[in-house]
Amino acid sequence: MRIGRLELAAFTLPVLLFQAIELTWRAYLPRFLNQDVGIALGAVGALLLGARLLDAMADPLLGWISDTVRTPFGRRRPWMVFGATLVPFGALLLFLAPTDASMTMIVAASLLLHIGYSFIITPHGGWGLELSDDRHQRTRIMGAKVWFAVVGSLGLLAFLALLERGFAVPLRLEMALLGWAIAVLAPLTVLVVILRFPERPAPDGAGQAGGPMMLIRAMLTNGDMRRILLLYIVTGAADAAAASIFLFLAEDGLGLKGWSATLLMIQPVMALLTLPLWSRLSVRIGRKRVLMIAYATQALAAPLLFLVPAGQPVLFGAFLVLRALGWGVDYMLLRAMIADVADEGDRGASRFSASYYGVSSITLKIAMGLGGAGGLWLIDLAGRAIWPGGGDLILRMAFAAPAMLAALIALPLLNGGRQMVPHAGTLQADA
């Protein structure tokens, strides 16, 4: 059964919240904590990694609880409501932190934000995997989630670009506004979902699973699941490494102070235009081939960064356009593949969809933590030695190399081995 566009829009509203948190955490927080709060880059990198490791521990447990614990209000709703009460406190404490804020306060605020975030995103992700049993509808649902993430980030970045270019608003005020936006979005978007959508009834046996670790081990016996998780690792690490140093590259490396939000808008705009095309193409030629094209496109565009001269926002923008041609396709298709694996693993019962989502989320968040921290640690070490004499080369390398390395790993992974997530009648499409 085809899910209507308005229904898709309503269900994916929390993605606006998720994107606001990710954008602020990955792109703006490192520079804010370093420049405005006064925390060393190395410590900021450790914070990014530590928060992702916390997520990695919380997500499988929350997925298992959301799948197996029945309440009078449903399996998903209570945890999402609880998360929506924690996120505002964490966001306001962290993104409005004063200059003399202690590391203890920063860590505590980060814990509140990320625990609340996990309590929303994991049950919501499992709920989304249950919306349809049709393979192509799942691609459409995951495409809608990515599309709304793009729209959300585009709206935030357009607002920030107006503040930067039109009013020269400092980073501290930008962070405060982002904190308040997240604090409002958390309860609002969760409320729409829990009031508008009925949950699929828990199937027989949903509360009879073993512990979360037993369930994870069972999932990892699936070869398709292991391969998808490896792709999540290379994708998440490459994406987070580039995001964490973007402001440093634009403002310090290329001398484009005040252009960051404007330039960051290019990626979501391109995704908004290209994702529907990639989605249709995946139906025609298969997900594997589309993923291979997307990884190759980003890798081939990455070295062009070394040809962009400093002080040229138009040329840097043109580079970002080429780099963004394949952005977002990987997340969209990998999430759809996870839905297929979950359905096959449960023999169509969708008993443990939140657990499947949680396992993929663990992998992605650890990869993002390692990628974001690794990028900051690299430029921190390089900056101590050569920053005054032209450390922009290190920034360019740190920004371009992850996409090339990701392609070197992902392309052989996609090209070799057996069919990923086979379905009757679709073997040739994804072969």
Automatic annotation (TrEMBL):
Location of the protein in the cell: Cell membrane
Keywords, in A-Z order: Cell membrane, Membrane, Transmembrane, Transmembrane helix, Transport
Membrane topology: Multi-pass membrane protein
SUPFAM superfamilies, A to Z: MFS general substrate transporter
Transmembrane stretches, start-end: 36-58, 79-97, 103-121, 142-163, 175-195, 229-250, 256-278, 290-308, 314-334, 355-379, 394-414
Family stated for the protein in its record: Belongs to the sodium:galactoside symporter (TC 2.A.2) family.
Official protein name in the record: MFS transporter
Organism: Sphingobium soli
Lineage, highest ranks first: Bacteria, Pseudomonadati, Pseudomonadota, Alphaproteobacteria, Sphingomonadales
